[in-house]
Amino acid sequence: MSSAVLTDDHKLTADWKTFLEQTKGLSSASADTALRYEAAVETPAAPEGFLYEPDLPIKAVYNSRQNITTFKDASIKVGDDADILLLSYESLPGTVTLDNVLFGFGVLKAPGGNTGETVIDKILSAIELSGAALLVDQGPQNRNATWLIPAKAPVKDVDNMKDPMVTLQTVTSLTFKLNASAITGFIQQVASALDDEFGTSLGKVDGSSLDDIAKLFSFTVSTTTTGTLLNDSTYDITVSPKLTFTVRLKGFIVNLIYERTGVSLNVQEDATQRVDLVTKLAKLMTGPSKDAPPTSSSLDALQTTQAIAEDDIHLRNVAFGKDFGGKMWWQAQFYCRWVIRNGVVVWVGLAYDSRSQTFDGGLLFSRDFADAEMMLLPYFDESMRPPDGLVDSLNLYDLFEETKSLPDNIPHLVSQASVRLIRQTTPARFELAFAIDSAPSTTVQDSGPVPSPFDWSSLVVNVTKQGPEIAVSVDTACFINPRPEDVALYTPATLTVSMDYNSATKNFDLIGTVDSLQFGALANYADPSCASAFSAIFGKFVLSQLILRYTIDNVTTDDGKSSNKASSFLMLGKIRLGLLELDLVYQYTSNIAKETATEVQLAKYPDAIGKIEPIARPTSADKSTGWTFEAYLGAAGTKATLAEVVGSIDQAAADALPGFVGDIEIAPSGVGDSPVRLTLSKTSPPAKAEASSSSSSTTIAAADSTLLLTLRVAVGPIDLTFVQLCENGKTTTTTEVTTTTPPIPKRLLRVKVGELPKIPDVPILQDLTQPFQACQYMYVGAGGALSTDDVEAINAKVGDGNELLYKQSNKPAKAVEGAGGASGGDTDKKSPVTALAVGHHFLIVHEGKVVLDHVFGNAKSQTPSSDANDDAKDGKDADTSGSDSKDSDVKKDASATEDEPAPTKGALKAQTKLLTLDSVALQFKDGVLWIMLDATVALGPVALTLLGFGIGLPLGDAKLKPTIDNLGTLISHMQFQIHGLGVSFEKPPLMIAGVFEHEIMKQLVRKPPVEQTIDAYRGGIGINFPPYTFVAVGQYAKATFSDGNEYKSLFVFAKLDGPLITLEFGGVRIGFGYNSMVRSPSIEELTQFPLIDDGSLGGAGNNPIKLLQTLCNSDNPWVAPKQDSYWFAVGMTITAFDILKITAAALLAFRDSGIIVSLYADAIAQMPPAATSTSDMILYVELGLVAEMNFVDCYFRCEASLAPTSFLLVPQCQLYGGFALCYWFGSNSHAGDWVFSIGGYHRSFQRPSHYPNPKRLGISFTVGDMVHIHGEGYFAITPKCAMGGAMIHVSLSVGIVSAYLDASFDAMILFHPLHYVADLHIAIGVSCDIDILFIHVHISVSIGADLHIEGPEFGGVAHVDFWVFGFDVYFGEQPRVPDPLNLSDFYDMVHKAGPTSGRPPSAGPETAGLDQQIKLTVEQGAFPMPSQDTATASAQPDSSGAGMKWFVKGGSFAFRI
Predict the structure, then answer these.
(1) What is the CA radius of gyration of the chain?
(2) Tens-digit pLDDT profile for residues 413-432
(3) What is the sign, positive or negative, of the torsion defined by CA atoms of 918, 924, 926, 927?
(4) For every residue of 686-716, which 3-state class applies, written as one string?
(5) Using omega within 30 degrees of 0 as the cis cutoff, is the peptide bond preceding 427 cis?
(6) Torsion sign across C-alpha atoms 207, 209, 210, 213
(7) pTM of the model
(8) Are 51 and 35 in contact (CB under 8 A)?
(9) Residue that wins the pLDDT comparison between 691 and 1211
(10) Rounded to an integer, what distance in angstroms lies between the CA atom of residue 854 and that of residue 861?
(11) Torsion sign over Cα 316, 317, 318, 319
(12) Kindly report the CA angle at 314 between 309 and 319, in degrees rounded to 5?
């Protein structure tokens, strides 16, 4: 159903006809003629219009052409959608009485009815007594018209399944007046009635002209008729009449409004009376009542602002009333024209309450009044008409000069403002509160050099004017929002912000407060270069309260523009650490700050930051900002355990702390500096050097984006440090998306262990005191191990005397997997060296250095070797054998499940009156920390050596509840142990030594893990009577498994040194083992192998005690029990003419799966023969050789290497290099592969992990400080390729002049498909460095050429470099990637017969008629199920062989041809 009023041919629609008929507005006979369309005409000129004559008791005529007269607007259709039909009153054909009006408009049910209202009765009675006809008042202030309103249909009630209701509405309004003869005495009655009811002072009405008196009174009758459609033709009619009596007295328009809901009084200013509002109100309110308020004194307060003139104050309406005590009160609404300053004018709306004598209101905007369209609607009244000069919005900067100092990113367009005028103050105080709302910015705004991530979308700007003084402040409550990537981690907090204008500095100070929030949500207030690290470090911290102060300063940009930026801030708060609360002081400043936020705070509160130094403004040109972050324990009396403190930072770390650390109590000392202090600072790892093609390197400074958090506690005997190191998240940007890797903090807790108590009356040793300087406990969290670079970065910040110590390691860093091919090992990329591994540590410190680092709770990196892994160590490393034996897998599992790491041993040289210490070891086992000492007691020529002497501290005893800061309570609960005793007698020339040791060891082996207990007895004897030395050592052990299996092991090793045959043999070594194995050395370990050179191990060769410990008790022993393994070894030393010395040993080992034959040799040649110093020699060459035929893992290897001590002519002419020959066969996964290399490989060759990596073969010769010659060469061949090359570098330096020559050649040939590549390079250069005073001048000239050749097809490029320019010359075919082999060529290459699988192929239909031509081997993903011809269930399935079925795992299956 349509709700339109008119059809296209300008007639009423059927719906409207039906509606008007049912409202008695039309009869069916006049339905088509009541509304007539009149077209526009030119003569006489008249616009188009509608003539409307409704059939009512008052038969008025309405004409839309009259709209221009009544409304000053010719519009016919008005409203938001211009669908309301407006027709103004034109004429009234007959006379109208009061009864006609009241009945016709529905005010009374029938003529003569009673309204029941006292005032209304009086007025109606006065009108009726006049007996005169009513006249329509067509004055310009009256709105005589009728409106046809097609009300919109509401939305359908879906819940109750009701159809939408359609409503139509008509509104008619007419204003009547009495003729002059009928008005006599009436006005006086009306005024008296109002005075009696409302306490006004209208009083006696003066007037001599009847016409003038008649203008004082009118009344308006309006009715609203609404029809709600019930069905297709029936409306539910509702009539809402309204009767308004208007009296114009004393400069006001007093409206008495009668509706069916009640009677109300409304007073408006009569704009036609040119009298100021103060005088008007005084006359109105000065009545007979003694309670009348002094109006004029109240309104005078407006004028005391010296900005509002008398004629600029206008009344909108007045309300009257009495309180319960009968006291008169009144409220009035005004609007005033306020001249803030020259050219700046605003309109202010005010509401005055006589009870509080206060004006409240707000700035007025055009939206607060009716617009031109709204003034045509029936609901408009004169109080809605806007004054002249209103605007849609105001610019705060234009209103007050002070607001121009607000930060640039604060919105300044005023959308709403409240005003308050307090007249009790002298002078009166004028307060304005500007409410500013703005949509969030879609662009990143520059808030200044200091982070200020405030949400200014909603705020209030307060301006107070009292006399000539103006104060400006900003108040808002905004959210502290976490970073977008942290939304799921932290909850936003509400920050109450206030900014006050400082008239002295002409800028704003910002203060923000918040009660409780998670610290991680403050990451937006951190240094932008490390915001994600800030969030990760402080994620668990909680702030119980926070005060934030900012300073805002004006800066001038390079283009001359002025802007206001956040220049500094100070953050004060309370950080919760368990039950402790630290006082936070976070200072951030920049070089634009005229006065820092800290200085402002200290000026008001001198003790605001305690003893922390105020931050200074940056002054260097390369640093525009600076910040400090510190927190300290104030004067609090609470205690907290270390676990509670750490738990407030990282609960996982707290849970991992053992009780003897976590139960340490921290309490404030109450004197001196704070015992608990927390600092945050930026740090960078040391600069790293990147390799370059020349002999120099380029240093690249690391990004300064790493945060270091340090918590230091020093209370009484407690000295602990907690550290968090976190690098900012790495951002990776692609063409489609930008991703940021969340940072993971590295965490470390260090507690300095208290001094060991003195142990009295120890047998032999007497009183035993702590033999080392100090012991420390450390815990490194799961965030990652600390590298040496990390430790150096931490030590640069923690201060002298508090540095982190770690065990120095000479082991090279592990090569990064997937790195490029090796070039003699020189270009392999290295990862940082680990200083402190993840887990728990006990460190022994002596003379300022870490003697040992015992790690527990991190078994993967600290578990000792078990026999399950011996095969992997037997004579090979991973690069050589490539074995995938199951024993290696068993060892990995054992490592992962090991809970008690082996003892960690370190060298400790210390001596007392009787005691000499050689080493110390630590082991945390079964809740007991064992401190084991290798000590010797000297009693004249007799020395007693204590083996495995240990002191046990029961730190894990729950009943004692010990803590490591106070070990004195454990003296009566200490445990002791000793494993063995060594005795030596030394009376030159005779020396005799003997040793006996008993040790029980436990470890997990096999898969699934089985506990193995080894009960070992060791002994040895040594006799030295020059020139002969005899030493013999041995071990008997019994290995027992938790599943009931056991075996026994035995080995014996003996040697005799001395001249056996003149000029030929110098010594014999022999040994054998039962259920025992010998670890085969790599080429680098050859000089430490006991069968070759046991004398190099700190004198162990002649001391049975040290030799036995070297063979069996080291972290990686040479001899260990191994079931079903046997070995026999023999070696000797041969000397020829004092020129050549060869030490060689042969080892024959038997395993359950095969035989291993090994040969080791170390040869030394020198000239001249009798020389004992290298300066007297012209030749010294030392060559190590390892050759091994291994039938267990099916490989052969032969490696040799020149020792770095080798030289020619002079020691400065050094020789180095190595070679390797390896071949894999049989069941080895690399069967059929081989390699021969002298000096390494081509730099582009991707070396397989199982290939050896010999050093480059080279010579390095340095002559004085002037000449340096360096040359290298290599050659290698594999089944796939051959390669070779050489290089030479010669440099000369004479004074300020230097020159160099570089030449190199590299070539590589690929066999399948055939492809070769060769590179030739030569370059020569001269440079000169001149220093003149403070000026350094560097001049260099160079020329060089490069030639690159590839083929087939033959082609390449030659490059010539002439110092300042260069060019390329291309020839032949351009390099391209060789075409891949097709299937036929690939088959021809691989179809050659390979080795068998160890037994013939299975017989069956699958293999009938097949010839074995290729061999396929499972690389990974094999499932342990037997093939169809496996004889026993325990046999392992074949990985190759014709017709064999493979049971494999999906997703990880890979095979090799």
Answers:
(1) 52
(2) 776 777 776 655 666 676 77
(3) positive
(4) CCEEECCCCCCCEEECCCCCEEEEEEEEEEC
(5) yes
(6) negative
(7) 0.58
(8) yes
(9) 1211
(10) 11
(11) negative
(12) 135
